[in-house]
Amino acid sequence: MPKVGGVARRATLIKDERAAGDAVLVVDAGDSLIGDMEPAMSTKGASSVEAMNRMGYDAALLGPADLSLGPELLKQRIAESQFPFLSADMTIAATGAAVAEGLVVREVGGRRVAIAGISGAPEINGFKAADPLRTAQRVAQDASGKAEALILLSHAAPEINERIADEVPGISAIVEGGALPRAEPWISAKTGTPIYHVDWPSSGHAGRLMGVATLRLDEGKLLSEWWRSVPLDPNIKDDPELAAWAQQQPR
Amino acid sequence: MGANPPVAAAKRRSYAIASTVLLLAVVAMTACASLPAISPAASPGASTDPFELTVVHSNDTWGYLDPCG
Lengths: 251, 69
Hints:
The structure holds two protein chains of two kinds. Helix content of chain A is 27%, strand content 27%. Chain A is of the alpha/beta class. In chain A, α5 packs across α6. The radius of gyration of chain A is 17 Å and the shape is globular. Chains A and B meet through β1, α1, β2, α2 and β7 of A and β1 and β2 of B.
């Protein structure tokens, strides 16, 4: 069975999608920094940040595994990133300071798009967590009037994300992380907000699939959406630059 | 003793002009209140037509650099 995944193929997909669309956002819904493989473990996520910098990510959520690095290492990773790491619900317990930005507004293809993040993490490693639903309500209000779309990245439990989709207006789409993917988008019957969740990690297996959502929007309202899951299989050629860089990284 | 007729006429013209200006100001304020507010998200020259946003997303990549089985 052929191997699937890798940053070289991911970079190719990202480049192809950026070339095909007018307004393209590249985001990660959490737990991108470390897992059970090198070099991420020994570099404490520094190699992951560099890979995402090279792939041109627009934003990434801090998931529970990312937060396990602790406040000091996370500060370093955030400083090294060329994109914002997001977490609107987590604060540093000792100081009350936010771990990362909660909401950013990016100009994408001449359009202003807000991106917010909910880590949904437990209160360990020196962090305090706010209620995810209340946090979602707060960021949706903060984003109102500032952008034509709001993409919420969330690593909260699926049932919580469904509640957010049902109860918080103004969210164009939720991109979900965690262990349980959704074979198809879950669409709220109340608001029409879709939830996308493409991949699931397990020991020795991660970063195999990418999701591509196409949203048609008008004055903040979602008119239609279409989503596909893309396995990063050998049909996708390696981006030569990312392949060369990845090969040089210590294992 | 009554006002000099030319002065009275000038005063009447002044009142008329002031009243007209005031009336126009009231009309303008009412019209502006009924127009849809300009979205803070819009900037001069920005389009407000429907648009297509592509969101390319990953999750739980765990820092993997290489393909896996």
